Amino acid sequence: MPDTDTLAAPDFSNWSCPLPLRDHPRVVMGHGGGGALSAELVEHVFAPAFGGPVLAALGDSAAVTLGGVRLAFSTDSYVVRPLFFPGGSIGDLAVNGTVNDLAMSGATAAYLSCGFILEEGVETAQVARVAQALGAAARAAGVEVATGDTKVVEAGRGDGIYLNTAGIGLIPAGVDLRPQRAEPGDVVIVSGPIGLHGVAVMSVREGLEFGVDVQSDCAPLGGLVQAMLAVTPDLHVLRDPTRGGLGASLNEIAAAAGVGVVVRERSIPVPPEVANACAILGLDPLYVANEGKLVAFVPRQHADAVLEAMRAHPYGAGAAVIGECVTDHPGMVVARTALGGTRVVDLPVGEQLPRIC
Fold it and tell me: Which CDD domains match (predicted)?
């Protein structure tokens, strides 16, 4: 172990980006929101500390080769509040979030680990309820929880139950899914209506009524991805737009590949209940989290067949083409509005809806 007394403190003055980390000497909620603050924390703090070419790819999961076998490996932590919400629970999120991260590399999830961080005083019945939900979600996703851990923190030092899951899965031969592969001409497809998870969690947490019961879209996407790969293994990019929503995912892909992305606002499937909730609260549906959707960058010659396969699967029934990759404005995402204008879809700086996953 290195002697921590000899490690130099980070020199903020050498960072290439003037905002916003140097304006935040302490962690704020936005650092966990999946937007610009999160990206800069990774770029300036974690990536230099850890190093390595595998981490540098910054995908939903890491693609590694071990003993001649290609594996996808991913980990995630879940701090959602409340623990149970319409359409799911923290247990469902822990399974589906990790399964979906593996699926975005084309992998079929095989095994999960699960860590429970419990606050002293939480009811054992509540822990059992979360564990049962997690186990049921794992069985539904066709994955086994193979190992785990439990820790307890003092009362007041947690928020009931936090979860961490890690997963591994096999990547089929000939599959190479990563954001750097997006290229001009690719068709951008989203697998269904966006924003449902974020609005569902917010509605119960804040006690808001939107005139309709909004259900989270939390679901395992491995089967949908396999149906898409059965059409062609030459998909370029898959990403599940969780924290930061569709807007953040599109920006991350555009930046990684150095391409421009154009989307048509009218083509993006935003359910009326999500649109109404966002209008009331001043939110942009493009930045609201999802937990059972994916966005795909598909070579144009395969787009129609992939879209048909997606719509034939229960978790892709609402799939829609929303845009394309272009050579113009590399690294930037723009939306064509219903009025015929354009607007920049930037990477969000903070976090619209904290604690949604």
Answer: HypE
352 vs 141, which has greater pLDDT?
A: 141
Q: What pLDDT is attached to residue 347?
A: 83
Spatial distance between the Cα atoms of 304 and 237, rounded to a whole number of angstroms: 16
pLDDT digits (tens, 9 = 90+) for 167-198: 999 999 999 999 999 999 999 999 999 999 99
40 Cβ neighbours under 8 A, 6+ residues apart: 17, 20, 21
- Angstrom distance (rounded) from CA 202 to CA 47: 32
d(CA 59, CA 153): 31
Buried b / exposed e along 221-234 (16+ C-beta atoms within 10 A): bbbbbbbbbebeee
Residue extents of the structural domains in the chain: 61-173, 179-344
| DSSP symbol at 16 | S
Distance, in Å, from the CA atom of 337 to the CA atom of 265, rounded to the nearest integer, reads: 5
CATH entry 3.30.1330.10 includes domain 61-173: yes
Mean pLDDT is highest, among 36-50, 270-284, 317-331, for 317-331
| Contact of 285 with 345, CB cutoff 8 Å | no
Asked if pLDDT for residue 15 goes beyond 50, the answer is no
Cα 272–chain centre separation: 23
Number of neighbours of residue 195 by Cβ within 10 angstroms: 31
Say whether 149 sits in a helix, a strand or coil: strand
Instruction: Say which DSSP state 5 is in.
Output: G
- Residues 6 or more apart whose CB falls under 8 angstroms from that of 248 comprise 34, 35, 241, 287, 347, 348
Residue 280 confidence class, pLDDT cut points 50, 70, 90:
confident
Kindly indicate whether the domain formed by 179-344 is annotated with CATH number 3.40.50.720.
no
Q: Cite the beta strand spans of 10-127 per DSSP E.
A: 62-66, 69-78, 84-85, 88-89, 108-119
Backbone angles phi and psi of 65, in degrees to 5 = -115, 125
Those residues whose C-beta lies under 8 Å from the C-beta of residue 146, and which sit 6 or more positions away, are 111, 112, 113
CA dihedral 296, 298, 302, 307 (to 10 degrees): 20
DSSP 8: P
Count of beta carbons in the 10 Å neighbourhood of residue 124: 8
Contact call for residues 250 and 236 (beta carbons, < 8 A): no
